[in-house]
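RECORD TYPE: inverse folding
INPUT: structure tokens
STRUCTURE:
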């Protein structure tokens, strides 16, 4: 580690071969500085500690539906060891693949020994944020190409795996799927009236989806004529986009609210705070305090029925629409997140 930080060795040591070489090198630099100090145990480090949510989108779905079974899988509820939702999905995918193998499916045969955590992680992580089958195929194909599979086989196998992955996530998180379906249908009902979907976050921030149909613009230049088709506020709403984009946009509004609530409390407590999506950072001496704040703000945010409030706001602004009943709530006690070691870790 120390040699990796010496002049002429940057990127040439083992740090350069790690998954995050620059972060690894930064840690090596900090370690080397501590070892050079008179007393390494008294060295003050400025290297931030990252605390990441465990498949954060699904954590919010579990809280929205009070889904105890889903909460355990994504560490909202306490467990004796960290749960790995990606491995749980892979296990279902592998069992589906085994059934296809027994039926003589040749695509399943090409994937023997190829399905692992890294192959499907990105797709599982983004499925809750609205990744399409097309996007999932592209994600999985990239991983299969990295493993040396030919382009044609990777295309075929990625298409097959994307279907199995979506099916596996649906089996694991039935409550999340029901909520997603409700959000999707409600958004379509609103878009059918010609209005964009709008809602407010738990902090009161108003959100409006800007998706409209494209308007064609013709631009003439001395060289040639160009035709551009772009969304325009003058055009009617794009019903399909309003519908499909709402579930991931709503979940993003929830996770960003949790981030802002955490940042505000950290500010009041004098704790340095930085974040990238669901990765919250602070200095080592503040980790315990921020861990408590993260959990308390999540509990506060879900101390009331968020979906019920959303439906009521939809009904207020769209009285002409009869919305479906909300999916039933589960048995999760949201206060249990206080005792979940691996909720953010």
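DESIGNED SEQUENCE:
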């Amino acid at each position: 580690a120390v040699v990796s930080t010496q002049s002429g060795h940057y990127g040439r040591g083992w740090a350069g071969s790690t998954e995050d070489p620059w972060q690894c090198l930064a840690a090596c630099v900090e370690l080397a500085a501590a070892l050079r100090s008179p007393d390494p145990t008294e060295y003050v480090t400025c290297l931030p500690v990252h605390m990441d949510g465990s498949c954060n989108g699904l954590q919010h779905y579990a809280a929205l539906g009070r889904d105890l079974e889903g909460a355990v899988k994504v560490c909202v509820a306490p467990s004796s060891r960290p749960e790995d939702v990606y491995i749980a999905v892979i296990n279902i995918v592998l069992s589906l693949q085994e059934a296809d193998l027994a039926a003589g499916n040749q695509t399943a045969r090409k994937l023997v020994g190829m399905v692992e955590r890294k192959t499907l992680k990105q797709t599982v992580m983004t499925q809750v944020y609205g990744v399409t089958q097309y996007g999932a195929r592209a994600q999985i194909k990239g991983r299969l190409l990295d493993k040396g599979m030919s382009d044609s086989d990777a295309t075929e196998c990625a298409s097959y795996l994307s279907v199995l992955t979506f099916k596996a996530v649906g089996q694991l998180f039935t409550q999340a799927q029901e909520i997603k379906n409700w959000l999707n249908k409600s958004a379509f009902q609103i878009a059918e009236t010609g209005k964009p979907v709008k809602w407010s976050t738990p902090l009161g921030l108003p959100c409006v989806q800007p998706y409209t149909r494209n308007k064609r613009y013709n631009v003439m230049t001395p060289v040639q004529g160009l035709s551009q088709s772009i969304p325009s506020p003058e055009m009617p709403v794009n019903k399909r986009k309003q519908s499909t984009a709402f579930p991931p946009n709503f979940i993003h509004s929830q996770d960003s609210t949790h981030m802002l609530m955490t940042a505000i409390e950290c500010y009041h407590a004098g704790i340095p705070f930085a974040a990238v999506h669901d990765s919250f950072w602070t200095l080592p001496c503040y980790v315990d305090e921020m861990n408590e704040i993260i959990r308390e703000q999540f509990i506060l945010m879900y101390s009331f029925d968020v979906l019920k409030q959303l439906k009521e706001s939809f009904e207020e602004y769209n009285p002409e629409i009869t919305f479906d009943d909300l999916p039933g709530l589960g048995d999760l006690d949201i206060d249990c997140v206080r005792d979940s070691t691996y909720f953010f870790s």
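NOTES: The mean pLDDT is 91.
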